[in-house]
Each structure stands twice: as structure tokens, then as C-alpha cells.
């Protein structure tokens, strides 16, 4: 079936460096895409979303890029901090109202 | 501080027993989702509701799982009979139709079926 997948299961970065988490998707008929952060023992938490008619959106220390040509999504975190350590999921919001999650990338921040 | 509340937080039961998980969505939210999380399968969508009406429950094993919203303040997920492969963390999330994919998740119910 259709899915939203991630390129790498783990990512380790040095504190202060920028992090880039990637995601590939297969469904072209989606309203928009969302990034969630899940800390250990907690539920996922919304970070940022991007509509399918956009190619870039910025938030506080985060930027999401959408490349519809190659069906690729990325989350960039600037000046990564220890508190950013978590599992990051991309998710796809479909017009039916479904929200489908990818497999997740675990981000570890080394002090 | 509005949040989604799930009970129980932890449940250990034996195979064949009935399990009911409950969720109180954020007041005013009109969409409710149930997800199951395991290491192997990640976050799987089981069912979701809009204005208390079930829109899609194709992710659930129909013979043993059922999801309902008796009223706007309560969503339930029932497993009968439970099996060891049902062991997972079950998350409930709520949101607004207008906000699309921005959901607020509960802390989850960790289920262990022996």
C-alpha cells in the first residue's frame, strides 16, 4: 500500500550543528505534510506542517522543505540542542482526513 | 492546560481477556484518531472519527477490535479477545477538522498481553 518512509533510522549530531532529517512519500494526492517529534515515553508532538502547494516553510529553528518532483520532504533543525533528541516522524495528511505516519528517525545530540 | 487524557496508562492482561482503553479528547475538538505503536510497525492508524462519526476503521482487525465514541467527551477502543500480538502502545489523538493534520496526542496506553 501507499506509505511515507524515511531514509535513515538514526541520526547523530553534535550539539550546535544543524540536523537534516529526510522523508520520502509515495502519494501525490495529499493536502499537506507534517513533522512530529516524539520524546521517550510520550505521545508525538506537532512541530510544523507544509501545504502541498508550498516548497518551504520556516518556524522557530526549524525549516521544512518539500520537493514534489522527487516526492521528498526534509526537516532542518538549526543549532541542534540536547532537548531536540527524540524520534522524528513525517506524516502525510490526505484529503480523506487520514493522517499517515512514516517509520521515524531517531535523532541523538552529542554534547 | 488542555490535553488528551488516556486510561489506563498501563495494562497487563492474559490472552483471551477483554481490554478497553478510554480517551478523553480536548474539549471542542471534532476529530479523534486511534493509533497503535510498535517497534516493528511504527505508528499505525487504527480508526478515526469526525464529529463522533467513524470515517475509517480499515486499519483495525475487525473480528476483535472495535472503536466507538459514545459522546463527544469519550472515545473507546476495545479488544476482545486480546492476543499477545496486540501488545503495543495505543495512542489517542484529537484535533480540529480546520487544522488538518495538527493533532494533539495523549500519553498512550501501554498494553501487554501475556
Give a structural overview:
The complex is a heterodimer of chains A (111) and B (114). With 111 residues, chain A is mainly beta. Chain A contains no helices and 11 strands. Chain A has one domain (4-94): Sandwich (Immunoglobulin-like), CATH 2.60.40.10. Helix content of chain A is 0%, strand content 58%. In chain A, strands 2, 4, 5, 9, 10 and 11 form a 6-stranded mixed beta sheet that branches. In chain A, strands 1-3-8-7-6 form a 5-stranded antiparallel beta sheet, with no helix packed on it. Chain A is globular, with a radius of gyration of 13 Å. The mean pLDDT of chain A is 90. Chain B is built from no helices and 11 strands. In chain B, the strands form 2 sheets. In chain B, strands 2, 4, 5, 6, 9, 10 and 11 form a 7-stranded mixed beta sheet that branches. A 4-stranded antiparallel beta sheet of chain B has the order 1-3-8-7, with no helix packed on it. In chain B, strand 9 (88-95) and strand 10 (104-105) form a beta hairpin. The mean pLDDT of chain B is 95. Chain A binds chain B through residues 31-34, 41-46, 49, 89, 91-93, 96-104, and chain B through 4, 31, 33, 35, 42-43, 45, 48, 50, 55-56, 91, 93, 97, 100-108.
Structure keywords:
heterodimer; A: 111 residues; mainly beta; Immunoglobulin-like; six-stranded mixed beta sheet; B: 114 residues; seven-stranded mixed beta sheet; 11 strands
Identify low-pLDDT runs of chain B.
none
- Please give the CATH class of chain A: Mainly Beta
Assembly of the depicted chains: heterodimer
Shape estimate of chain B: globular
Radius of gyration of chain A: 13 Å
